[in-house]
Write a structure and sequence with these properties.
Bound molecules: 6-O-phosphono-beta-D-fructofuranose
CATH architecture of the largest domain: 3-Layer(aba) Sandwich
Strand order of the largest sheet: 3-2-1-4-5-12-13
Structural class: alpha/beta
CATH topology of the largest domain: Rossmann fold
Distance between the termini: 56 Å
Number of domains: 2
Order of helices and strands: EHEHEHEHEHEHEHEEEHEHEEH
């Protein structure tokens, strides 16, 4: 048996842990060869791949990013202006692949599903720091991103306190507020602003003024997809060819400008950006990624293709890829963490 593996979309901590687990679990079976496709679906189009061996993946568990490389805008069904899926499938046939393990987010799962419909058996592994894939309680990479946000907020809080400032910290997360919500709670933010709950600038300013009156600084944790009621998303750039071409960013600077005239303290903003995606995975993410990889390999060995592994409670399950492809999972209005935040005095923007 010959299995390919690729990492699609933005990178995140834990990708190498999955590559390692899949390779070790399959090659240990003796009769399975594993080939890594380089730079996601781009490698299928350009014919770039390399053999993966237990020795080759021995030391990558704790390494951030992906040893295979990735690509954030390569969709074989629409690359450089045309459908190139025939070329991708032809390369898979040339390699003699019996199946492909695809590690990625909603866009990558969408492409994997379309390739599966064209005859390439796939197994999906959910990846994204955003934690916004449906069907799984957690994606690996999220815990690592939350840890970085939490540490950043700890650091911001000491400088905010020293100067009695209003400090705004912007997280990633696209259209979902999971990173800002969990990172904000972990870092003790006074205000958390999420895409799912449009905020009022006046209400946030009133909250900061109340804290000023009590001699307190204010730390605001805002998700890049958050917006004031009646306002649009803050778009940083558009990436042609990407399954989701919008790149968000800059809402913290936007809020800084609007808040400054409404409060006495100085207002400053910090955009954390890609620092949230880099570096070594947390222990939790290493274990989750390894579990996902081992279960993906088990599905391959059972011939159970067209599935994405997922975490439900503490159990690894799998779902048909088409039920998750191209869909996202925002923070629900009744999420327990929202109750916890409100109940412990965190202002959510209204
Ligand atoms: O989906 C992961 C993510 O890091 C988002 O949180 C962020 O909006 C986006 O990718 C950034 O993408 P890029 O690396 O292309 O700027």
């Amino acid at each position: 048996m010959h299995i390919g593996i690729l990492t699609g979309g933005g990178d995140c901590p834990g990708l190498n842990a999955v590559i390692r687990a899949v390779t070790l679990a399959l090659v240990r079976q003796g009769a399975v060869r594993v080939t890594g496709i380089e730079r996601g679906f781009h490698g299928l189009l350009k014919g770039c791949s390399r053999t993966l061996t237990p020795q080759g993946v021995a030391d990558i568990l704790a390494v951030g990013g992906t040893i295979l490389g990735s690509h954030n805008s390569c969709d074989p069904f629409g690359f450089e202006g045309r459908d190139r899926s025939d070329e991708a499938l032809a390369y898979a046939r040339e390699l003699g692949l019996d199946g492909l393990v695809v590690i990625g987010g909603d866009g990558t799962m969408g492409i994997a599903h379309r390739l599966a419909l064209r005859g390439l058996p796939v197994v999906g592994v959910p990846k994204t720091i955003d934690n916004d894939l449906p069907g799984t309680d957690r994606t690996f990479g999220f815990d690592s991103a939350v840890a970085i946000v939490s540490e950043a907020l700890d650091r911001i809080a000491t400088t905010a306190r020293s100067h009695q400032r209003v400090m705004i910290v912007e997280t990633m997360g696209r259209y979902a507020g999971w990173i800002a919500l969990e990172g904000g709670l972990a870092g003790g933010a006074d205000v958390i602003l999420l895409p799912e709950l449009p905020f009022s600038v006046d209400a946030v300013a009133a909250h900061a003024r109340q804290r000023e009156a009590a001699g307190l600084h204010t730390v605001i944790c805002i998700a890049e997809g958050a917006r004031a009621a009646g306002e649009g998303l803050t778009v940083r750039e558009r990436i042609a060819g990407s399954p989701d071409p919008l790149r968000l960013g800059g809402v913290s600077a936007w809020l800084q400008q609007r808040l400054q005239p409404l409060v006495t303290s100085e207002v400053r903003s910090t955009l954390l950006g890609h620092v949230q995606r880099g570096g070594t995975p947390t222990a939790y993410d290493r274990v989750l990624a390894t579990r996902f990889g081992w279960h993906a390999a088990a599905l391959v060995l059972q011939g159970c293709f067209g599935r994405m592994v997922a975490l439900q409670g503490d159990t690894i399950v799998s779902h048909a890829i088409e039920t998750v492809a191209g869909r996202s999972r925002p923070v629900p209005a009744d999420d327990t963490l929202l109750h916890v935040a409100r109940g412990t005095g965190v202002m959510l923007g209204q």
